[in-house]
Amino acid sequence: MTRDKTGAMGPLIVAGVPAAARLRARVPALTRRVVTRLRSELPVYAELPGEEIAGDIADIVQYTLRLLADVIEHRRPATDAELAQQRDSAAQRAEEGVPLDAILTAYQIGTAMCWAELSQDARPAELPDLKEAVDRIMVLQQQVTSAVSRAYLQTRAILDSQEHGGRHALLAALLAGEPDERPGVQRPAALYAALTLRLSTHPDETLPGPGAGVAARRKIRRVRATLDAFGAGTGEPALTSLDSSGGTALLPLAEAPPWPELCALTDAAADAAGVPVTAAAAVVEPAGVAAAVAENTEIVDLVERTGRGPGLYRLADVLLDYQLSRPSVALEGLARLLQPLDSKPELLHTLETYLRHGLDRRGCAAALHIHPNTVDYRIRRIARLTGLSPGRPADLQHLTAALVARRARTLSP
User: Fold this and answer.
1) Contacts of 153 (CB under 8 A, 6+ apart)
2) Contact 338/409 with Cβ under 8 angstroms?
3) How confident is the model over 8-43, as pLDDT tens digits?
């Protein structure tokens, strides 16, 4: 054991250099080798999405290697705070359904490879330092095993209790329109943001094999975490029922938030999931949850059927489409206003594009890849055939309603 002139312990020396510095210098290359071996020897890691391997898994491997260098350098065990990332990683793997034995085996493989790297070219005179380095490695391995196992099992217990416990029961009762008032049953919040979400398919979900299921669970976990964070200030849990295609979320609120906040939440969920998200929302009291969710579902269906883009919608955003999607005599009458264009799809498409661009002939022309004069010509033809011109305010309202009525009639189930 080496000591400096003050009597303090000096660095552990292996292969003629400080062991910690030697390990840190090799962390990037060693991380890649560890990850490659995990994928080759552990089937569950081979099935994980490439994004997760290059991101979360590589990050935790690199972090653990650097932590090992720290404990060797300072010749002490890891602190509880330093093990937080291993605990978080274990909780994520638990939510994704990765078996605990595979996680612990992965850490053992990484530790063995780290030891082989560190002890290479060690000299006989360095045996005391090498022995202490081994002791530090084994202590850290024991700490990591304990922290990972505890976090994994706690997460699984929480997931199981949520599935069969109070949160699930409360969600079911609210969706049924029958909040359970029995003593001991979890009470509803004063207000909820009721969200209906549609999640697009992540590319990793289309991969063959079990990895697709892992990618789906990962997407759901990230969306759920985003929704939980939004309602964290109330002290009440978010109530969610999600699968890979979307579902329902009830977010407890102390007061109704500004609409832009809910729009930002939807954008954050899309970023977290890595896929476009289409959603509808309404802020309601517990008694209004069931009706709000039913209406939200209709709104999302309508948004998708009419070709709108992803984002958050409310009834006011699709009011005309929503009303005209109800069967009525007026619906057929409005749709017939554009009947003269049935045999001229280029005119219908031009009209839709022209209205979508706010009557901007140049924007419309650019979208259609035609000359602005061609847009003018087609709009004049539309006016001659239908008797309605977008340039007249009253006619513009009728044309907009007629287009919506045609879509509603065509896309009605």
Assistant:
1) 94, 100
2) no
3) 467 888 888 898 998 999 999 999 999 999 989 988
**Whose CA is closest to 110, among 152, 148, 58, 65?**
65
Let me know the angle formed at the C-alpha of 119 by 114 and 122, rounded to the nearest 5 degrees: 160
Rounded to 5°, angle at Cα 227 from 190 and 245: 115
Residue 408 has pLDDT above 70, yes or no: no
pLDDT at position 1 over 80:
no
Give 122: exposed, middle or buried? Use CB within 10 Å, 0-12, 13-18, 19+: middle
Between the alpha carbon of residue 287 and those of residues 37, 156, 182, 247, 259, the distances in Å are 54, 32, 16, 20, 21
Return all residues near 275 (Cβ < 8 A) that are at least 6 apart.
Answer: 199, 200, 201, 202, 219
Q: What is the pLDDT of residues 46-90, one digit of tens each?
A: 877 777 788 889 999 999 999 999 999 999 999 999 999 999 899
Q: What is the mean pLDDT of the chain?
A: 84
Q: How confident is the model at residue 290 (pLDDT cuts 50, 70, 90)?
A: confident
375, 350 contact by CB (below 8 A):
yes
Give the whole-angstrom CA distance, residue 381 versus residue 399: 14
Measured CA to CA in angstroms, residue 256 lies from 110, 259, 286, 297 at distances of 49, 9, 13, 21
Element housing 246 (H / E): strand 246-253
Provide CB contacts within 8 A for 338, sequence distance 6+: 348, 351, 386, 399, 402, 403, 406
How many C-beta neighbours within 10 Å does residue 353 have? 19
Q: How far apart are CA 40 and CA 159, in angstroms?
A: 30
**In contact, 296 and 270? CB cutoff 8 Å:** no
DSSP 226-241: HHHHHTGGGTS--EEE
